[in-house]
Amino acid sequence: YSSVELTRYFLDRIQTLDSKYNAFITVCEESALAEATAADARRAKGDAAPWTGIPFAHKDIFCTEGVATTCASKMLANFVPPYDATVTRKFKEAGAVCIGKTNMDEFAMGSSNESSFFGKVINPWGENLVPGGSSGGSAAALAARLIPAATATDTGGSIRQPAALCGVTGLKPTYGRVSRLGMIAFASSLDQGGPMARTAEDAAMMLNIMAGYDPLDSTSIDQNVPDYTGTLNDNLEGLRIGLPKEFFRDDLNPKMKAQIEAAVKELEKLGAKIKEVSLPHTHLSVPAYYVIAPAECSANLSRFDGVRYGYRCEHPEDLEDLYTRSRSEGFGDEVKRRIMIGTYALSAGYYDAYYRKAQQVRRLIKNDFVAAFNDVDLIAGPTTPTPAFASGSKTDDPVQMYLEDIFTISTNLAGLPAISIPAGEVNGLPVGLQLIGNYFSEARILNAAHQFQ
Ligand code: GLN
Fold first, then answer.
1. Which entry of 73, 111, 116, 134 is annotated as an active-site residue?
2. Is residue 153 a contact partner of residue 182, using CB atoms and an 8 Å limit?
3. Mind telling me which Pfam families this protein's record contains (predicted)?
4. Do residues 183 and 89 touch, judged by C-beta distance below 8 A?
5. Which of 126, 287, 363, 402 is spaced 20 to 30 Å from 391 by Cα?
C-alpha cells in the first residue's frame, strides 16, 4: 500500500467510527494527506526510514506547530502552538504521518478519560466502559483500529493503565529518556512521554524515534539510544523476574490474580526464573504521589493566567478579576482540585509536613526498587487492580479513582521504565501484565514483552 492509501483508510475509519468513541479531538485530514504524499515520494527515492509513511496520532498534550493543542481543556481549546514538541519534530523527520490529536483527561489528570472538556472517551470493549486515562483517546483509537500507533504520556500510569484497559501495549520509558520539550507539563519530575501500539515490536520502533538526548530539556539524559528492535528476539533463558509480594496481596481481585499468575507461568516457560521480591513502601506510593503531583501541577499551571495565551474571560474589571475568572472558567473541576491541594501542600507551614515528607517517602520507594533490582532483572505484576470499570462509577469519589493507579505510580516516583502488555481477559475484558525494569532497560523490557506476545 502507498502511504496515501493507508492514510485514507484510517481517515475513513475515524470518520465512520469515532462518533462512537470520541477518541480524537482533532483530525488533520489535509496535512495528513500532504505528509503521506511526501512520504510516498521519499519512499520512491529510496530514502525511507522504517516509519516513513506510517499513520499515527499524537496525544493532544504534544505541541504541534499550526495544529490545535488543547490538553483537553477549555483553557487551551483555541491554542495553536507556534512550535513543535521535540517528539513531534522527530516523528516529522522520520516521515511519519500525523493523522490527528487524541482525546485525554484534562491536563492529563485522571484515570478514566471522563474529565476532558471535549467529552468522555468510550472504551471500544463496551459502550458503558471507561478506556482508562489519561491517555484514553490514544488507547481507544488503537483498540478500535482507528490508528496503528499513538504517542502518550505517563505521570502516574497514564500510558500503562489505559493500554491495559483497552487491550493494547504501552511503554513508559525511564525518566529523561524521551524529551519533555513541548509536552505540556503536569508534574515535571514525573511526566514522561512514550509509545502506545498494538505490540511491543511496534512500540520498540516508535521508541527508536522518540528516545534521545535533548539539550533543550534540562532533565533529558545524554545516553546512547540502542536499536530497540535489535534485541526483541533474544531468548529469555535465565532472565530473573521478581514478583513483589505487595502486588499480589489477598485483597487483589482473585480472577485478576489468577490471570496475571498464568501470564507469569508463560514467562517461566520461556526460560525466565521467577522469585518473590518485596517493595515494602508500595502502600505509600499513592499518598506520596497525590502530594507531589498536585504540588508540581499547581506551579506548572500558574502560567495559565489569561494574559499570555489560552482562555481569557470576557470583560474583566481589573487584573485580579481577569486572573480569577479566566482560571475559574477555563479549568475543570479535577484540575482545580489538584491546584488547590498542591497550593495548600506547598504553603508556608505545610511545606515540611506534606511536601518534604512526600519527597522523603519517594526516596524510600525508589530505594525499594534499587534493592529489588540487585536480585532480579525485571519485576512483574498486574497493571491495574481491575479491568475497565463503568463510566461514572468513580467520578464522585476521587480517592477510588486515585487507587486505580496503585500498581503504576511507584515506578514514576522512582523514574523507572515499565510496560503494560495484554495478558488475556477477566470477565471478558482485557487486562494488562506490567513489566518494570531498571533504569534504561527499555530494550530488555521490550524483549521480554515481545517474547511473551
Ligand atoms: N491517574 C493519575 C492522575 O490522575 C496519573 C495520570 C497520568 O499519568 N498523567 O494523576
1. 134
2. no
3. Amidase
4. no
5. 287
Place of cell 463503568: 390
**What's this model's pTM, rounded to 2 decimal places?**
0.97
Query: Which H or E run contains 210?
Result: helix 200-210
Is residue 380 a contact partner of residue 435, using CB atoms and an 8 Å limit?
Answer: yes
Domain boundaries of the chain, sorted by first residue: 1-281+368-453, 286-353
Residues with CB under 6 A from ligand 1: 108-111, 134, 154-158, 186, 293, 405
Q: Given pLDDT bands bounded at 50, 70 and 90, which one contains residue 402?
A: confident
Q: Is 257 a catalytic residue?
A: no
| Residue-wise pLDDT tens digits, 164-179 | 999 999 999 999 999 9
Planar angle of CA 356, 360, 363, nearest 5 degrees: 140
Cell of 173: 520509558
Backbone φ and ψ of 416, nearest 5°: -90, 155
Counting Cα atoms < 13 Å in the Cβ hemisphere of 6 gives: 22
Q: Tell me the C-alpha distance between 118 and 104, whole Å.
A: 9
Q: How far apart are CA 45 and CA 55, in angstroms?
A: 19
| Distance, CA of 47 to CA of 375 (rounded, Å) | 45
Tens-digit pLDDT profile for residues 123-158 = 999 999 999 999 999 999 999 999 999 999 999 999
Task: Give one word for 297, left, alpha or beta, with left for phi > 0 and alpha for psi -120 to 50.
Answer: alpha
Q: Among 116, 153, 155, 333, say which to mutate for ligand 1: greatest number of ligand atoms within 8 Å of CB.
A: 155
